[in-house]
Design brief:
- This protein is 62% helix and 0% strand.
Length: 181
C-alpha cells in the first residue's frame, strides 16, 4: 500500500505557489514541484517525446474535418420547389403560404405513389411482397417519414466518412510513393 501512495500522491501547493494565486499575482518564477513523480525526470520526458516525434509521421485523422464541421450552425434544409409549378397555379403559389403548399404537395405526392402502386398491382407486379409489409401496417406517416429521414441522415454521414477515408487514403498513397522514391 505504501508503494502505491508514492506514485499516486498529489502535489501540495502553498498559498504563495498555488495556480490560482500565481495567475492573480503574475509570479512567473513559479515552477511546480515534481516530488510527487519521482520516476519521471525532465530528461526522460524530453527524450521520449523526441523519439516518438521522429519515429512517427504526422498524419491527419480522416474524421478530423467531420468533427470540425459539427460546430456549424444547424439550419433547416430549404424546401425544394422543383415540381411545385406542376401542381399549383401561379395564383395559388402567390396566395398560399409555403407551409400550406408543402402539406398539399406531400398529400399530392402520396396520392401519386398510391396510384403507381395500384398500377403495379393491376399488372401483377409488385416489388415488395405483402408479407414483408405486415410489420408496417398501421404505421403513422410521420413515423415513416422520420424513419426515412433518419436513414437519409445516416447515408449522408456514411458518404462523408467514405469521402474523408478516400481523401486520407490518397494522402497516404502520395506519402508512401514519395518515401519510396
Amino acid at each position: 500500500m505504501d508503494s502505491l501512495q508514492t506514485y499516486y500522491t498529489y502535489p501540495v501547493y502553498t498559498q504563495a505557489h498555488s495556480p490560482a494565486s500565481s495567475s492573480a499575482t503574475s509570479d512567473s518564477s513559479y515552477t511546480p514541484s515534481t516530488d510527487y513523480l519521482p520516476h519521471i525526470t525532465s530528461d526522460n520526458l524530453s527524450r521520449s517525446t523526441q523519439k516518438s516525434s521522429k519515429s512517427r509521421l504526422q498524419i491527419a485523422h480522416p474524421y478530423a474535418r467531420l468533427v470540425a464541421k459539427k460546430d456549424e450552425v444547424k439550419r433547416r434544409k430549404i424546401w425544394n420547389h422543383a415540381l411545385e409549378k406542376s401542381i399549383f397555379t401561379p395564383y395559388e403559389i402567390s396566395t398560399l403560404g409555403a407551409p400550406h403548399r408543402r402539406v398539399i404537395y406531400m398529400a399530392s405526392l402520396e396520392s401519386h405513389i398510391d396510384e403507381l402502386h395500384a398500377q403495379l398491382l393491376s399488372i401483377g407486379y409488385y416489388p415488395v411482397p405483402f408479407s414483408a409489409l405486415e410489420q408496417f401496417k398501421g404505421l403513422n406517416s410521420k413515423t415513416a417519414k422520420s424513419m426515412v429521414a433518419g436513414l437519409q441522415h445516416d447515408v449522408s454521414l456514411s458518404k462523408l466518412k467514405l469521402l474523408e477515408l478516400e481523401r486520407a487514403n490518397a494522402d497516404l498513397q502520395t506519402i508512401l510513393s514519395q518515401s519510396q522514391n
